[in-house]
C-alpha cells in the first residue's frame, strides 16, 4: 500500500483523530507538566548555586563528614561530640522515630477505646469520652506539650524522693528509669520461637477466615494464638536456661545509675502526642462504627451472636473501611507534630540537626532539604502501608 503523502487528507484526518483522542491529549499534557517541573527544579538549583557562589558561601553535602563538636543529651545509638554531622542526622532520625512509633502505637489503642466508649449505653461513660475528645482535640498540641513538661514532670520529686512504681520503675524530675535487659548467649532461640509463633498465628487467622468464607464455620483463633505467642516462647526460654537478666537502676549519690532512662522531655512529648491524636482517632472510630447499618447488628443478634462477638466480627470489620482513610492522616500528623519537641529541648531531628547543626555549619538549604526528605519519606511510607491495608478491607465489586 502506498504511503500517505505529506498534507494528504488521510494524514490530516489521522492527526485530527490523535488531537481529539483523550488518551493522546492526556499523555501530551503529562509530558508537558513533567518537563515544566524538571525545568523549574533545574532553574531553582542553578540560581541558588549561583547566588551562593556569588556571596562566597559554600554548598554541597561535604559538611556531613565534618566534626559536629557538640553533645546530645539523649540518644539511642552511640554518639560522641567528636562524631560527624552525618551521625547527628542519624541520631535525630532515631530519636524522632522512637517517639513517633511508640506514640502511634498507644495513640491507636487509646483512640479505639475512647471511640467505642463514646457509643456506650452508660450515660456517664459516654459523656466522659465525649468531653475527652472535645477538650483535647480543641486544645493546641504545643500547649499540651508545655503543660505536661512544666506542670507535671518539672514538679516531680528529686531522685532521692523518686516515685517507685511496681518496685522496679523510678519516676522523678530527671526522667523515667527502668530495668535494662541483658540477653544471654541462647536468648536468640527464644526470639526465634516468638517470631515462629507470630507467623503461625497469622497463618491460623488466615486459615480461619478462609474456612469461614467457604463453610460459615469459624475456627477459634484468640486463645490458640495467645497460647502460641506466650507459652511456646516461655517454654523455649525455660529450656534454654532463662538466658536473660536485668540491670536495675540504683540510686547512687544524687542520681540513679544502671538500667535505662528517658528524659522528662521524652515523657512529656509522648503523652501529649498520644492524648491529643487519640481524640481524633476516637472521633474517626465513632463515625466509622455509626456508618455501619444497625440492621447488621440486629441480624447478628438474631443469629445468636453475643454483643462482644458482634462488635469484633461484624461491626469493626465493616467500620474499618471508614476508619482507615482518616487514620492515615492521623499517623502522619503524629510523626510531623513530633517536631514540636524543640519547644521543650527534646533532641529530635529538628532540634539537633535543623537547629544546632544548621547554626554551626551554615548549610541551611542542604539541612532543610534533608529534614524535609525524611518527613516526606516517613509520610509516604505510612500512606503506602495503610493504603495496602485499606485496599484489602474495601468491598470487592463482582
Automatic annotation (TrEMBL):
| Residues passing through the membrane, by range | 27-45, 57-77, 97-117, 138-156, 186-207, 219-242, 262-282, 322-347, 367-389
Which InterPro entries does the annotation name?
Answer: AA_ABC_transptr_permease_3TM, ArtM/GltK/GlnP/TcyL/YhdX-like, MetI-like, MetI-like_sf
Tell me the Gene Ontology biological-process terms attached to this UniProt entry: amino acid transport
Please give the PROSITE patterns that the UniProt record associates with this protein.
ABC_TM1
A GO MF term: transmembrane transporter activity
Give the subcellular location.
Cell inner membrane; Cell membrane
Q: Which domain of life is it from?
A: Bacteria
Annotated membrane topology: Multi-pass membrane protein
- Key word Zinc present: no
- Domain ABC transmembrane type-1: from-to ranges: 93-386
Q: What is its main location?
A: membrane
How is this protein annotated for GO cellular component? ATP-binding cassette (ABC) transporter complex
Q: Which Pfam families match?
A: BPD_transp_1
Q: Keywords, A to Z? A: Amino-acid transport, Cell membrane, Membrane, Transmembrane, Transmembrane helix, Transport
**Does Membrane appear among the keywords?**
yes
Give the UniProt family note: Belongs to the binding-protein-dependent transport system permease family. HisMQ subfamily.
Q: What is this protein called?
A: Polar amino acid ABC transporter inner membrane subunit
